[in-house]
Amino acid sequence: RRLYFDTHALVCLLEENGFTTQQSEVIVSALVKIMHTNLDMIYKDMVTKVQQEIALQQVMSHIGGVKKDMIILEKSEFSALRSENEKIKLELQQIKKQVMDEITKVHADNKLNLNLEKSRVKELHAQQDRALTQTDRKIDTEVADLKTMLESHKLDNIKYLAGSVFTCLTVALGFYRLWI
């Protein structure tokens, strides 16, 4: 171990400042012991270059192992995620197919219901048209019957009127003859 100061110069300095030679040497000796103890403490906490290289190699080997483990884990995790993603895609396609089937069924049901309603409405209109036609025929028949009855009554009235006129004329002529 080397000391980076001159111990003799320190002894001389202490003697110049009023210390005896023996006191100066004891003080310098105590300082040297304190420095050696401090250096021992410092050296105990320090590592050598070789130890540092070994520790660095160990750390690098651990880092390499961790990297390999991370790559393996990442690949396996990625594979797991990929397979999970494929499962979800398949489920989604099945659900999509089911939804499309349901939509098709609902669309077909609605179309069928709409066609049924259209045919019901057409049938109802046809029934109404038939009923209206029958009613028109009945009205026409009734009107024709009424016209016929009116013509027959008219004829009867004309007959009665003609009979009444002739009767009145006959009676008038009879009175006329009687008076004349």
From TrEMBL:
Gene Ontology biological-process entries: calcium import into the mitochondrion; positive regulation of mitochondrial calcium ion concentration
Pfam families in UniProt: CCDC90-like
Major subcellular location class: mitochondrion
Segments crossing the lipid bilayer: 160-179
Keywords, in A-Z order: Coiled coil, Membrane, Mitochondrion, Transmembrane, Transmembrane helix
Coiled coil: none
Leader sequence residues: none
Record bears the keyword Mitochondrion: yes
Location(s) in or outside the cell: Mitochondrion membrane
GO cellular component: mitochondrial inner membrane
Membership in a protein family: Belongs to the CCDC90 family.
Name of this protein: MCUR1 regulator
